[in-house]
Write a structure and sequence with these properties.
By secondary structure, this protein is mainly beta. Helix content is 0%, strand content 32%. The protein is built from no helices and five strands. A three-stranded antiparallel beta sheet has the order 1-4-5, with no helix packed on it. A two-stranded antiparallel ribbon has the order 2-3. Strand 4 and strand 5 form a beta hairpin.
Length: 71
Amino acid sequence: MQPAYNKEMFKSYPVSKDGLYNDNYDAISYTFIDPIVLLYNDGEIKGGLNSIGGDAIIILDNSDFKLVKHE
């Protein structure tokens, strides 16, 4: 996604020596439980106000990236 407001880019994310990559999860999901909206060149990611959260950023098999929009 590489939005312009990021001061540090991680071109090989999620590959890293620290973090969750070496644990070899089938899926890792991130969402915001906050009414935040993040803008990037191809659209936006919205947070939510309840325990479900908003849109989900999902990494599958340590390689595939998906953005799941919460409607």
